[in-house]
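step=encode ok
step=design start
structure_in=
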């Protein structure tokens, strides 16, 4: 039995590899993950995208 582990991507990163790591974890294309993250950040007033990204960058370990 293998378990999924959330890690920041080292190979498919644009800034910190957070969204690419989340995309790998969820099994979606990293480009689609980035688009969804930006859309949710812009369209939602209750989702501070930049702050969440920075916190995830610090908290999620690199692969």
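sequence_out=
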């Amino acid at each position: 039995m293998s378990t999924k582990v959330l890690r920041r991507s080292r190979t498919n990163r644009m800034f910190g590899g957070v969204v690419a790591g989340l995309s790998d974890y969820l099994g979606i294309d990293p480009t689609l993950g980035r688009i969804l993250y930006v859309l949710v950040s812009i369209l939602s007033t209750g989702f501070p995208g930049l702050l969440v990204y920075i916190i995830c960058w610090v908290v999620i370990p690199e692969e």
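step=design ok
step=annotate ok -> The mean pLDDT is 88.
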